[in-house]
Amino acid sequence: MKFQDLLAYQKSFSLAMKIFEITKLFPKEEMYSLTDQMRRSSRSVPANIAEAYRKRVYPRHFHSKLTDSDAENSETQVWLEFSLKCNYIDKSVYTELSNESNEVGKLINYMILNPEKFGVQS
């Protein structure tokens, strides 16, 4: 199995791409602040999932990378909230992306709680 086959990876990658497209519409003055932060944190989620999967022969590294991914996902949720409050996205977009982020969080936590299902040997 490739890391690209993991549902958590697929969903987090898709979310990062949606965020990339949406942030293209943000004001230029946000380019090096909110836009950059949102893109970085959302892209870190699938990147850390990929790293975790490759480190699955080391249980502690697997767990550590997944908790990093979960933290980046939470950071993305904060930036989404700022985007809503700054009126860069509307409530429906916020709700859609937040729901997707919550789903990604659940998938990451499933991986953390069930490492053996992902080839981690204890």
Automatic annotation (TrEMBL):
Pfam family, one: 23S_rRNA_IVP
Domain of life: Bacteria
Membrane-spanning segments: none
Entries under PANTHER family matching the protein: FOUR HELIX BUNDLE PROTEIN
Descriptive protein name: Four helix bundle protein
Species this protein is from: Flavobacterium sp. WC2429
Lineage of the organism: Bacteria, Pseudomonadati, Bacteroidota, Flavobacteriia, Flavobacteriales
